[in-house]
Amino acid sequence: FLCGYPRTCGLYSKPIPSGTKKIIYAPTFRWSQYLENCMVDDLIKSLSLIQKTMEAIDGKFIIRFHPHTWRDYNYKLTAEIKKYRRIKIDKTDDVYAEMPNYFAMISDYSSIVYDFLLMNRPLVFHCPDLKFYMHADHDLKYDYKEVSPGPQTKSWEETMKAIAEYAENPEKDSDERLRVRDFFYDMSVNDENNCERIVEEVKRRINF
Protein backbone atom coordinates (compact mmCIF):
# COMPACT_ATOMS: atom_id res chain seq x y z
CA PHE A 1 0.00 0.00 0.00
CA LEU A 2 1.58 3.27 -1.16
CA CYS A 3 0.32 6.40 0.50
CA GLY A 4 3.01 9.10 0.54
CA TYR A 5 4.54 10.57 3.69
CA PRO A 6 2.30 12.34 6.23
CA ARG A 7 5.01 14.83 7.17
CA THR A 8 5.18 16.19 3.62
CA CYS A 9 1.46 16.98 3.20
CA GLY A 10 2.17 20.71 3.26
CA LEU A 11 4.86 20.65 0.58
CA TYR A 12 2.78 20.17 -2.57
CA SER A 13 1.52 22.78 -5.06
CA LYS A 14 3.31 25.60 -3.27
CA PRO A 15 4.63 28.53 -5.35
CA ILE A 16 7.95 30.10 -4.33
CA PRO A 17 7.14 32.99 -1.95
CA SER A 18 7.67 36.48 -3.35
CA GLY A 19 9.74 39.13 -1.59
CA THR A 20 12.72 38.42 0.63
CA LYS A 21 14.31 35.09 -0.25
CA LYS A 22 14.66 32.87 2.82
CA ILE A 23 17.52 30.37 2.59
CA ILE A 24 17.68 27.54 5.11
CA TYR A 25 20.97 25.90 6.03
CA ALA A 26 20.14 22.46 7.45
CA PRO A 27 23.22 20.23 7.84
CA THR A 28 22.88 16.69 9.08
CA PHE A 29 23.92 15.18 12.40
CA ARG A 30 27.55 14.20 12.86
CA TRP A 31 28.78 11.61 15.31
CA SER A 32 32.27 13.06 15.03
CA GLN A 33 32.64 16.04 17.34
CA TYR A 34 35.72 17.13 15.42
CA LEU A 35 33.84 17.28 12.11
CA GLU A 36 30.94 19.08 13.72
CA ASN A 37 33.21 21.67 15.33
CA CYS A 38 34.94 22.21 11.98
CA MET A 39 31.55 22.70 10.32
CA VAL A 40 30.47 25.31 12.87
CA ASP A 41 33.81 27.13 12.87
CA ASP A 42 33.83 27.27 9.06
CA LEU A 43 30.30 28.69 9.11
CA ILE A 44 31.27 31.37 11.62
CA LYS A 45 34.29 32.39 9.55
CA SER A 46 32.00 32.83 6.55
CA LEU A 47 29.24 34.89 8.18
CA SER A 48 30.44 38.15 6.62
CA LEU A 49 30.40 36.62 3.14
CA ILE A 50 26.95 35.12 3.76
CA GLN A 51 25.64 38.51 4.96
CA LYS A 52 26.96 40.25 1.82
CA THR A 53 25.32 37.67 -0.42
CA MET A 54 22.00 37.99 1.41
CA GLU A 55 22.16 41.76 0.99
CA ALA A 56 22.84 41.38 -2.73
CA ILE A 57 19.88 39.04 -3.35
CA ASP A 58 17.53 40.47 -0.69
CA GLY A 59 17.71 37.26 1.26
CA LYS A 60 17.71 35.91 4.80
CA PHE A 61 19.95 33.05 5.89
CA ILE A 62 18.38 30.74 8.47
CA ILE A 63 20.53 28.23 10.39
CA ARG A 64 18.92 25.03 11.60
CA PHE A 65 21.07 22.24 12.98
CA HIS A 66 19.84 18.66 13.14
CA PRO A 67 17.42 18.18 16.08
CA HIS A 68 19.48 15.23 17.40
CA THR A 69 22.62 17.32 17.74
CA TRP A 70 23.33 17.13 21.46
CA ARG A 71 26.15 19.67 21.37
CA ASP A 72 24.82 23.19 21.94
CA TYR A 73 26.23 25.70 19.46
CA ASN A 74 23.44 28.25 19.75
CA TYR A 75 25.19 30.31 22.42
CA LYS A 76 28.28 30.56 20.22
CA LEU A 77 26.33 31.36 17.06
CA THR A 78 24.04 33.86 18.76
CA ALA A 79 27.01 35.92 19.83
CA GLU A 80 28.57 35.79 16.37
CA ILE A 81 25.47 36.70 14.33
CA LYS A 82 24.42 39.71 16.42
CA LYS A 83 25.94 42.13 13.91
CA TYR A 84 24.44 40.37 10.88
CA ARG A 85 20.77 41.32 10.56
CA ARG A 86 20.14 38.92 7.66
CA ILE A 87 21.37 35.80 9.50
CA LYS A 88 19.12 34.07 12.04
CA ILE A 89 18.88 30.80 13.98
CA ASP A 90 15.69 28.83 13.41
CA LYS A 91 14.00 27.98 16.71
CA THR A 92 10.69 26.63 15.44
CA ASP A 93 9.58 23.21 16.64
CA ASP A 94 8.53 21.88 13.25
CA VAL A 95 10.73 22.72 10.27
CA TYR A 96 8.20 21.11 7.91
CA ALA A 97 5.57 23.72 8.76
CA GLU A 98 8.05 26.43 7.75
CA MET A 99 9.56 24.70 4.73
CA PRO A 100 7.15 26.19 2.14
CA ASN A 101 8.41 29.66 3.14
CA TYR A 102 11.96 28.91 1.99
CA PHE A 103 13.29 29.86 -1.43
CA ALA A 104 16.24 27.46 -1.28
CA MET A 105 17.93 24.91 0.95
CA ILE A 106 21.60 24.35 1.69
CA SER A 107 22.45 21.00 3.22
CA ASP A 108 25.11 18.31 3.03
CA TYR A 109 24.07 14.67 3.54
CA SER A 110 20.68 15.07 5.18
CA SER A 111 17.55 13.32 3.94
CA ILE A 112 15.64 16.57 4.50
CA VAL A 113 16.72 17.67 1.02
CA TYR A 114 14.54 14.96 -0.49
CA ASP A 115 11.49 16.36 1.24
CA PHE A 116 12.39 19.88 0.08
CA LEU A 117 12.80 18.38 -3.39
CA LEU A 118 9.03 17.87 -3.58
CA MET A 119 8.67 21.63 -4.10
CA ASN A 120 11.28 21.61 -6.91
CA ARG A 121 13.15 24.57 -5.43
CA PRO A 122 16.90 25.28 -5.48
CA LEU A 123 19.17 22.94 -3.55
CA VAL A 124 22.87 23.41 -2.83
CA PHE A 125 24.93 20.56 -1.40
CA HIS A 126 27.63 22.11 0.79
CA CYS A 127 29.98 19.14 1.28
CA PRO A 128 33.60 20.20 1.97
CA ASP A 129 34.06 17.24 4.36
CA LEU A 130 32.50 14.51 2.20
CA LYS A 131 35.45 12.08 2.31
CA PHE A 132 36.05 12.66 6.01
CA TYR A 133 32.34 12.32 6.80
CA MET A 134 32.12 8.97 5.02
CA HIS A 135 35.23 7.77 6.86
CA ALA A 136 34.49 9.14 10.34
CA ASP A 137 30.69 8.85 10.48
CA HIS A 138 29.24 6.36 8.03
CA ASP A 139 28.88 5.51 4.37
CA LEU A 140 26.05 6.79 2.19
CA LYS A 141 23.17 4.69 0.87
CA TYR A 142 23.25 6.11 -2.66
CA ASP A 143 25.81 7.51 -5.05
CA TYR A 144 26.15 11.07 -3.79
CA LYS A 145 26.67 12.70 -7.18
CA GLU A 146 23.77 10.84 -8.78
CA VAL A 147 21.15 11.81 -6.20
CA SER A 148 22.29 15.34 -5.33
CA PRO A 149 20.47 17.55 -7.89
CA GLY A 150 22.35 20.80 -7.46
CA PRO A 151 25.84 22.23 -7.06
CA GLN A 152 28.09 20.18 -4.78
CA THR A 153 30.26 22.86 -3.24
CA LYS A 154 33.50 22.67 -1.29
CA SER A 155 33.53 26.13 0.28
CA TRP A 156 31.14 28.84 1.40
CA GLU A 157 32.40 30.98 -1.46
CA GLU A 158 31.17 28.36 -3.94
CA THR A 159 27.94 27.90 -2.00
CA MET A 160 27.09 31.60 -1.95
CA LYS A 161 27.92 31.88 -5.65
CA ALA A 162 25.46 29.05 -6.34
CA ILE A 163 22.76 30.75 -4.24
CA ALA A 164 23.28 34.03 -6.12
CA GLU A 165 22.86 32.19 -9.42
CA TYR A 166 19.64 30.58 -8.22
CA ALA A 167 18.37 33.98 -7.11
CA GLU A 168 18.70 35.06 -10.74
CA ASN A 169 17.22 31.85 -12.13
CA PRO A 170 15.30 29.57 -9.69
CA GLU A 171 14.47 27.16 -12.52
CA LYS A 172 18.14 26.33 -13.05
CA ASP A 173 18.60 22.55 -12.52
CA SER A 174 14.82 22.06 -12.32
CA ASP A 175 14.87 19.07 -14.68
CA GLU A 176 17.59 17.40 -12.65
CA ARG A 177 15.64 17.95 -9.43
CA LEU A 178 12.57 16.36 -10.99
CA ARG A 179 14.64 13.39 -12.16
CA VAL A 180 15.85 12.68 -8.64
CA ARG A 181 12.41 13.36 -7.15
CA ASP A 182 10.89 10.75 -9.43
CA PHE A 183 13.63 8.28 -8.49
CA PHE A 184 12.62 8.46 -4.82
CA TYR A 185 8.88 9.15 -5.04
CA ASP A 186 5.89 7.69 -6.82
CA MET A 187 4.13 10.98 -7.51
CA SER A 188 0.79 9.28 -8.19
CA VAL A 189 0.55 8.72 -4.41
CA ASN A 190 2.40 11.75 -3.07
CA ASP A 191 0.32 14.88 -2.66
CA GLU A 192 -1.58 16.90 -0.05
CA ASN A 193 -3.86 13.88 0.55
CA ASN A 194 -1.14 11.60 1.98
CA CYS A 195 -2.69 11.56 5.48
CA GLU A 196 -6.19 11.04 4.12
CA ARG A 197 -5.10 7.97 2.16
CA ILE A 198 -3.67 6.40 5.32
CA VAL A 199 -6.80 7.06 7.38
CA GLU A 200 -9.10 5.76 4.68
CA GLU A 201 -7.03 2.61 4.18
CA VAL A 202 -7.02 1.87 7.92
CA LYS A 203 -10.81 2.35 8.02
CA ARG A 204 -11.20 0.04 5.04
CA ARG A 205 -9.10 -2.70 6.60
CA ILE A 206 -10.97 -2.69 9.90
CA ASN A 207 -14.37 -2.33 8.19
CA PHE A 208 -15.03 0.96 9.94
Describe this structure in words.
- The chain has 208 residues and is an alpha/beta fold.
- Helix content is 40%, strand content 11%.
- A 6-stranded parallel sheet has the order 3-2-1-4-5-6.
- The model has no long low-confidence stretch (mean pLDDT 92).
DSSP strand tally: 6
Strand % is 5-15%
* Average pLDDT rating: 92
Which strand order spans the largest sheet, edge to edge or round the barrel?
3-2-1-4-5-6
Number of helices: 9
Radius of gyration equals: 18 Å
Q: What best-fitting shape do the alpha-carbon axes yield?
A: globular
Order of helices and strands: EHHEHEHEHEHEHHH
Concise synopsis of the structure shown:
Helix content is 40%, strand content 11%. The chain has 208 residues and is α/β, with parallel strands linked by helices.
Please name the defining characteristics of this protein.
11% strand; 6-stranded parallel sheet; single chain; 208 residues; alpha/beta; 9 helices
Topology:
Blueprint: E1 21-25, H1 33-45, H2 47-57, E2 59-63, H3 74-81, E3 87-89, H4 95-98, E4 104-107, H5 112-116, E5 123-126, H6 130-136, E6 152-153, H7 156-168, H8 174-184, H9 194-205
Parallel strand pairs: 1-2, 1-4, 2-3, 4-5, 5-6
